[in-house]
Design brief:
- There is one protein chain.
- This protein has a six-stranded mixed beta sheet, sandwiched between helices. A four-stranded parallel beta sheet has the order 8-7-6-9, with helices on both faces.
- The chain has a domain of 284 residues: Rossmann fold.
- It is 33% helix and 16% strand.
- Helix 2 packs across helix 11 and helix 11 packs across helix 13.
- It is of the alpha/beta class.
- The chain is globular.
- Pathway: Amino-acid biosynthesis; L-tryptophan biosynthesis; L-tryptophan from chorismate: step 5/5.
């Protein structure tokens, strides 16, 4: 029998703690600012939207945070997730590299998003919250939150980017199957939605507009909180179960990856896989390079500016310093569907500070939507020869000039692996 195609862990191997990269960074990211005063926010400023436990996780300097047993119980429905060896891709490329991907599509929602949706729903239920509002692009986050709310008896209301809402009716069906309510955004239900429609009656929507609508509703109801599926520190914290499992899976087969590749929009999928490996890199236990890959339709890391910006179109959310295309960014008509599906016009501050080795030009966020953009940021751990293109023989045109068909929207993160390594148990 040859080398295994999938590497599995037992339920007993499920990580019991989330990892906080902030504890190991040389310096913390710049502070989050209040949208009105422009001063650093405190816990009281976040209380109208988030429960105390999540606020504590957002600002904690502790390296590890224990995962509640109630959350672990739901995680066990699909975790630990498998690590696959891509034998056929290796053969097609003719490469000596060993390529692996961590498959998060086994979750009930079909993506990595429930890793944070479940604890967010749990902590909100613990705080006595009755309803959660949120935004969603392709529908993965909306589906995940609806699933999570169903596990803890919460109502869930979702604003989905209009372009995606129209193109993906089955995501709407999934959200409703889990008990959620979904609206196309912009909608007539909020001031933010009505303002967007007044400006453009045929608006395809954007994540920024959808966030504004969800935040507006949550802020106006004391029994309702808002939940975000990316960008914030506590979201990235929850996603680190991905990388912690991957470390154990590589150790199980005696391999050490030398390159980690993660798809990056708002940053949660990338952070979930990469941050535990960065811990090993920063501690000197592993020499690994990290590459963040983003969609060309929403190139926040490669063409955005490093500046303070709002997370929503209406300017209701706190200001965070990050790579951004501007809080009022709406993709070009030719790329709207792709951007609504795969992209976020801003990348989370923690991923920004962990991936980039040098500061980006500080310009106004609104100016970032024009011009050629800045150079691609270098990784924290540069790889001498990063694989950037497929061999010429493998770049075959699609039949009749049609775009390649996407087989799945669930995130998979490719990893090349060599040598051997055993993890050092965290203290």
């Amino acid at each position: 029998m040859g080398e295994p195609t999938k590497i599995l862990l037992d339920e007993s191997d499920l990580p019991r703690r989330w990892y906080n990269l902030l504890a190991d960074l040389p310096s913390p990211p710049p502070p989050v600012l209040h949208p009105g005063t422009k001063e650093p926010v405190g816990p009281d400023d976040l209380a109208p939207l988030f429960p105390g436990d999540l606020i504590a996780q957002e600002v904690t300097a502790e390296r590890y945070v224990d995962i509640p047993e109630e959350v672990l119980e739901v995680y066990r429905l699909w975790r630990p997730s498998p690590l696959y060896r891509a034998h056929r891709l290796e053969k097609a490329l003719g490469t000596p590299a060993k390529i692996f991907y961590k498959y998060e599509g086994v979750s009930p929602a079909g993506s990595h998003k429930p890793n944070t949706a479940v604890p967010q729903a749990y902590y909100n239920a613990l705080a006595g919250v009755r309803r959660l509002t949120t935004e969603t692009g392709a529908g993965q986050w909306g589906t995940a939150l609806a699933f999570a709310c169903s596990q803890f008896g919460l109502d869930c209301e979702v604003w989905q980017v209009r372009a995606s809402y129209d193109q993906k009716p089955y995501r709407k069906a999934m959200i409703e199957t889990f008990g959620g309510v979904v609206h196309p955004s912009p909608s007539e239900l909020t001031e933010a939605g009505r303002a967007a429609l007044a400006k453009d009656g045929g608006s395809p929507g954007s994540l920024g507009i959808a966030i504004s609508e969800a935040v507006e509703v949550a802020a106006g109801d004391p029994t309702t909180n808002y939940a975000l599926g990316s960008v914030l520190n506590h979201v990235l914290l929850h996603q680190t179960v991905i990388g912690e499992e991957a470390l154990a899976q590589f150790a199980k087969v005696g391999l050490t990856p030398d390159l980690i590749v993660g798809c990056t929009g708002g940053g949660s999928n990338f952070a979930g896989l990469a941050f535990p490996f960065l811990r090993e890199k920063l501690s000197g236990r592993m020499d690994v390079a990290v590459r963040a890959v983003e969609p060309a339709s929403c190139p926040s890391l490669t063409k955005g500016v490093y500046a303070y910006d709002f997370g929503d179109t209406a300017g209701m959310t706190p200001l965070m310093k990050m790579h951004t295309l501007g809080h009022d960014f709406v993709p070009a008509r030719s790329t709207r569907a792709d951007c609504a599906t795969t992209g976020c016009p801003r990348c989370c501050p923690t991923s920004t500070n962990s991936v980039c080795s040098r500061p980006r030009p500080e310009r106004s966020a609104s100016a970032s939507r024009r011009g050629s953009g800045s150079p691609v940021p270098k990784a924290l751990c540069p790889h001498p020869n990063p694989p950037t293109r497929l061999p010429r023989a493998s770049r075959k045109p699609c039949a009749a000039g049609k775009p390649a068909r996407r087989r799945s929207s669930s995130p998979r993160s490719a990893v090349t692996a060599t040598s051997t390594w055993q993890p050092t148990p965290p203290t």
